Amino acid sequence: MDDLAGMSIEELASRYFATLTAGKRQKGEAAVTRFVRWCGRERPISRIKGRDIEQYALGLGISSVASQSPQHVRPFLTYLHKQGATRANLATSFRIRKISSAPESSRRRRALTQLTKEGYQRLKVEMEKLKAQRGEIAEELRRAAADKDFRENAPLEAARDHQGMVEARIRELEAILNSSVLLEAQGAGAANSKVVLGNSVTLVDLSSGEALQYTLVNPDEAKLAEGKISVASPVGKALLGKAKGEEVQVTVPAGILHFRIKGIAT
């Protein structure tokens, strides 16, 4: 199945469509095509990770096209895994988080978002990359609109939805960056303080003896592959306010985990 892993996501989407009945293809083509465009048509499937899927789902949560996408994109991702194109089932990362539609005035009254310097820069880079896509998206719209039959123009619908998702994500990132404050280093004397946002915490798994290290960050910065966990996650919540030497237990779907805090660093 190695040959599938090297194929582009657009090629694999074509294979997937060929397995569907005419009715299912008509219903799901726009959603899958929209997803393929967002990922990049020529991008090898091996380069698409769970984090990419999470970002796409986040964009759906702040757009108007979320209602039908899960039931069409998830089966496509599951198909890729069953065919051996992906090692992991990326469908498990496809979880839409609805973003509050509260008025802007009420959003401004919320507490400022605390970000690490690295996290702030990463979000800023993401925003600039999305803004750089505007020209390409405009060209996609122009090409799709060249087909005068608008009744069943799935590429045009997908291009419009892609544009809406990108613009929504840009607005969200702008709001986060404009209302954020950078975390300040606590100083050398903070080594024995209690765990707070921005700390790097070393844990010992009391069941296996394994040492783990996590950095607690704002949910917008979370990236588990890099050891950055959200303060809103089960582990993050359990660690906040705890001191070195304390034992904590974390309830997860697989059961209850027990840790001892070995060290806290800023």
Task: Describe this structure as you would to a colleague.
The chain is of the alpha/beta class and 266 residues long. Helix 3 (22-39) packs across helix 9 and helix 8 (134-145) packs antiparallel against helix 9 (154-178). A hairpin with a 2-residue loop joins strand 6 and strand 7 (255-265). It folds into two domains: 2-182, Helix Hairpins, CATH 1.10.287; 188-265, Roll (Chitinase A, domain 3). A five-stranded mixed β-sheet has the order 5-4-3-7-6. It has a two-stranded parallel sheet with strand order 1-2. It is built from ten helices and seven strands. Residues 101-110 and 187-191 have low confidence and may be disordered. Helix content is 45%, strand content 15%. The longest helix is centred in the middle third of the chain and has 25 residues, at 154-178. The protein has helices at residues 2-5, 9-18, 22-39, 50-61, 70-82, 104-108, 117-132, 134-145, 154-178, 234-239, and strands at 113-115, 180-182, 200-205, 211-217, 228-230, 247-252, 255-265.
